[in-house]
Amino acid sequence: MTSDAEIEAALRAAFNQCEAENCPLTEQQKQILLEIAGQLLQSAQLCSPQRRTNPLDELTSEERLALLQFAKEQDRLNRPWKAKLLNDWLHNRDSGSVQFIRDRYGPQWLNRVKPIHLAKYYDQAAEVGLKLKVGSRIEVCNALWEWVQKGDTEALEWFPCTVVGLYESSDEDYTYTNCLVRFENGAEYEIQGIYEWNHPNWRWTVDN
């Protein structure tokens, strides 16, 4: 692909040719042409097949969901998700629901994944893919009903449950979503603001 330097050199050669033909451009005209050429080049680069390729497109829907859940959980714990994976691989530790990345794709694929690639699927997930529905299987943590010091991951306990109800509530001009879950022992618990202030206190299970 043509570079900025090559385009600038071609334009300056054209400027010189104009002067040789006794029709020189003004400095303002030259600057406008250089800026337009730079914008066109940037647009072409953004639209090139290489730039459009998203490594997450190569995953199955189940693999993508597992990776998004993993990345979100590591972000909640203030840990870079890529560093966590590479550290697991370095010490030959199993990476749980995302072990498939090492087994099937490897470090070269991992290195291709950038934040913008995750953002594409986060945006989609926020609309459809990761929205809860009745019957969804999730895990909720004990921080919902007891005090856990922030950052104390060892004190967190996770409990599997099933979503049995979803409804919206309003507080003046603010609307939020409440969720009723049922634990395996039959007990039920209401989670207020599950997408809003309580989002860090639940996560998807790998069987979704």
From TrEMBL:
<protein>
    <submittedName>
        <fullName>Uncharacterized protein</fullName>
    </submittedName>
</protein>
